[in-house]
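FORM 7B: Structural annotation worksheet

SECTION A. Query
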Amino acid sequence: MKHILVAASALLALFTACKMENPLLTESNLPFGAPQFDKIKNEHYIPAFEAAIKEAKEEVDAIVSNPEEPTFENTIEALEYSGATLERVSAIFYNLLEANTDDRMQEIAEEISPMLTDYSTYVSLNVPLFEKVKAVYQKKDELSLDTAQKRLLEQHYKSFVRGGANLSDEDKATYTELSKELALANLQFGKNVLAATNAYSLNVKDSTALEGLPEYMFALGKSTSQEKGLEGWTYTLDYPSYGPFMKYCRNRDLREQMWTAYNTRAVGGEFDNQEVVKKIVDLRIKIANLLGYETYADFALEDRMASDAKTVNDFIAGLLNPSLPFAKADVEAVREYAVKCGFDSSQQMMPWDFSYWSERYQEAEYSLNAEELKPYFQLENCIDAVFSLANRLYGLTFEPLDNVPVYHEDVKVYEVKDEDGSHLALFYADFFPRPSKRGGAWMTEFRGQSIRNGVEQRPFISIVTNFTKPTADAPSLITHDEFTTFLHEFGHALHGIMAKGNYPSMTGTSVARDFVELPSQIMENWGYEKEYLRTFAKDYRTGEPIPEELIDRIIEAKNYLAGYSQVRQLHFGYLDMAWHDRTEVPQESTLDFEHSTLAPYAVLPTVRQTAISPSFSHIFNGGYSAGYYSYKWAEVLEADAFSLFKEKGIFNKEVSTSFRKNILERGDFDDPAVLFRNFRGHDPQPSALMKKLGLE
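SECTION B. Predicted structure
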């Protein structure tokens, strides 16, 4: 018996030592408690999740077993602050899964998905816990709660109801299984999109077939070939490669190959997502029905500004229908120009033609070429310019740090300080594409802002993009469009950086999906302001400032193809609602359903074998299901909001201070409609967007 006890003691000691050595679980001794990226390895994740889930469950159990009468403090606040370790581990793992993944991490994601679903249902279907929450909720009018506390109580109560707390035991078991299936299906969708994107490349050995491509694209193609051990020039479906290829390559056959590859990602073959899409839709409908909602859209929209499917559908139609004639006119204008330049008038203008010819038309109409602008937008200068804008508007400074580890050598980290010199946040910037990173651009956080036990935790904010890497001959040069993307994601970052409040679920970007894009989209406006562009846009080769007439052309071209672009964006929102505002899965194939849905609003020919849905990560593997409309919804908000800057001055401190205090700092501590009115003085006006785009 003694030997058994000794062995057990040794095992416990070994387990404790392993936990102590796990950098995901141990207290960081780095500046500001930054994540220990230099120590984290794949083998740390599963033990960390297991320990964090165990700890979180114990914290929940402590709330349930508390013999005292349920109060706001011992129930709602205690629940809000529970699971902090799990939040930290999850934030690191899932952010790296998107930005620096590998095969093992994707396997881990599948392994931990059921564990996390189990924990989620352990909380959401916990009867005694819900009874305590409900007891506090039923006394809410008797409690002396401030606005934020009332909102937190309301949200926790609703999250239980929306998470199945009122279901029967049998239905709770069904809900748990459906949730597990859905989580795995979402993971499979994302895994397939990444694999399908990485699986394709176009290798060209004859340089004459690449006529029209700018020099940097030849350099990019050559370096990609060298990385892959190939001869000639190679182009991938990563957007810094794919986008310019479609704009500049004169070879129509090669453009068709690239466009078709991009738009058939996860359509057929080894990484097919067509049935995964239908499975996700089916599971979402079943979950919504189980919770008492007719459609998944009814469920998803309940806690957003728009509040219901009818409002969203009316909103989309209200913009789509008046914009459609402008979109058709845009396409016809491009086609007429192309015909003048030798395009065969007997042929239809296909999607793989439009990007190329619209770029040529813009060059002719506005004497504006995206490549002509790139020398003025060296990435390093753009970084300084974006930081300077934050300083001018909000007094922030960004100081590079070399004593904080990062998860990839391309990543840079900065300390953000407020106007008074106080610490605000750590800011991580990850700009360049790689096979381990998904496409696109996004903002995220490794830790949000909160106050726990009287101690404030300031946030760790990150933006991730896929800008062109430097080559042997040139630094990283970005297009003006990419610069506005930078501004967009940086707007999200500011929302996180300047967060204030006690409760982690309500600070920073933890706001309604159709409100969260306001801080990001409003920042894009400065990318078209002469007074701002003059401050930094210089030719990297000569140091000469961007010519005034070139700035004028950027501004004049701002609304180029505004009708087409608006309809294209609304297409995505319309398709999203078509998938989610329904009571059953479509009987026809994923491709047939998508094509029939979008046919009334198509402005370019539909190509039978292609589809958006199988790679539409925003709605099938992101947080935008029944929510893609929110980009346009937020455009209305930002168009109206920025009009106040235009009226008072684009660097006006009174306006920027009001935007900071009423929007950026407030998170979800009040109704977003109230926050907007507090800043703007009135409800958002859709006419502001149509006016801004010149679609009146």
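SECTION C. Observations
The chain has 28 helices and nine strands. Strands lie at 201-204, 233-236, 397-400, 412-417, 423-430, 442-447, 450-452, 455-457, 460-464.

SECTION D. Sign-off
Analyst initials: ____
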